[in-house]
Design brief:
Rossmann fold; alpha/beta; globular; 46% helix; 198 residues
């Protein structure tokens, strides 16, 4: 796969990049810089923490899902998945930025998107980016982010993330691991090199 030259033209095939790691690891910074490097028009970013739940698109989907009896807790995920499908249909680079500590849920998500691509006559090269960082550093970052008005993570779910998070590199996914303490540019270059090998 050649991802060197940013262009507004569609990709030969869509691409999926799953960015995972604990809160405060630097996933969002890496995702934003990766989007710049790949060309903003080519990329769709999905992030459950960045969903505008007051948007018309979200409210309409939520209303439809409620009418179908779908639990409201699943609405954000369905919204992201729908946007991923749209990105795949448009042959975009879809970057899904989420912690994903549950292997089963992670695998089902990747399989769903891969099947959607196949059903629409294309392939979906997939790269898993795992952002590694010390738990204490991550906790300090989350606290600082919250103090500055950003997204907070309560102590209980944060501790659950730290205790349950593990690499999925041995589960059959093409995976690149980056360090959340490294310069973001270094991490992005490492990811770009891995993308070329897909």
């Amino acid at each position: 796969m050649n991802i060197d030259a940013p262009t507004d033209k569609p990709q030969d095939s869509p691409t999926l990049i799953m960015v995972r790691g604990v809160p405060g690891g630097g996933k969002s910074y890496i995702t934003a810089r990766l989007r710049q490097a790949l060309g903003e028009e080519r990329v769709v970013i999905l992030d459950p923490d960045a969903i505008d739940k007051t948007s018309k698109a979200y409210l309409e989907l939520s209303e439809s899902l409620t009418a179908d009896g779908v639990d409201s807790k699943l609405h954000p995920y369905r919204f992201l998945r729908g946007n991923a499908h749209a990105g795949i249909a448009s042959h975009k680079i879809v970057i899904w930025n989420q912690g994903f500590i549950d292997l089963d849920g992670f695998t089902k998500t990747v399989n769903n998107l891969t099947a959607y691509a196949t059903d629409h006559g294309t392939t979906l090269p997939t790269l898993v980016v795992e952002v590694e960082i010390d738990g204490d550093v991550a906790k300090e970052r989350v606290a600082q982010r919250a103090a500055e008005g950003g997204h907070d993570v309560p102590e209980e779910p944060f501790n659950r993330f730290i205790s349950q998070y593990r690499s999925f590199a041995d589960e059959g996914f093409t995976t690149v691991q980056v360090n959340g303490n490294d310069d973001v540019g270094v991490s992005v270059e490492k990811i770009l090199e891995a993308l070329k090998k897909l």
